[in-house]
Amino acid sequence: MNAKKPAMEVPECKEQLIAIKDTMILLSGKWKIQIIGWLLLYGKVRFMDLLRGIDGIAAKMLSKELQELEQNQIVARTMMPTKPITVEYELTEHGKTLSGVITAISTWGVTHRKFLFKKES
Questions:
Q1: What is the C-alpha to C-alpha distance for residues 16 and 14, in angstroms, rounded to an integer?
Q2: Helix (H, G, I), strand (E, B) or coil at 74
Q3: Residue pLDDT, tens place only, 64-117
Q4: Backbone angles phi, psi at 119, to 5 degrees
Q5: Is the CA virtual torsion 34, 37, 38, 39 positive or negative?
Q6: Peptide bond into 11 cis (omega under 30)
Q7: Residue 98 CB-half CA count within 13 A
Q8: CA-CA distance, 30 to 100, in Å (whole number)?
Q9: Pick from 75, 39, 72, 74: which is nearest to 54 by CA?
């Protein structure tokens, strides 16, 4: 006879788990963190600079990702009154609060690469 397992209790830190899920949804995908990292490093940049700077991203995907980041108030878009029209992107003040997250990811990535290459030697 199978005994029923007791139901798992919902942790008291449910709010934190929801926040983690929300953050992962917002930053998910291959490109968003790279875009935010680029904007943290270079400040206000034009669309074509981002396109050239982020290796492998297509113009349509960059446009889509920037729109999502703009909708979530991470990125601000400014249209310049030039001919042809120039569009610049920069992090909002709220977007700049991701600096610690991006720095932590970068630091971990450098450490991880060193770890992996050390293992191969």
A1: 5
A2: coil
A3: 999 999 999 999 999 989 888 889 999 999 999 999 999 999 999 999 999 998
A4: -65, -35
A5: positive
A6: no
A7: 27
A8: 19
A9: 39
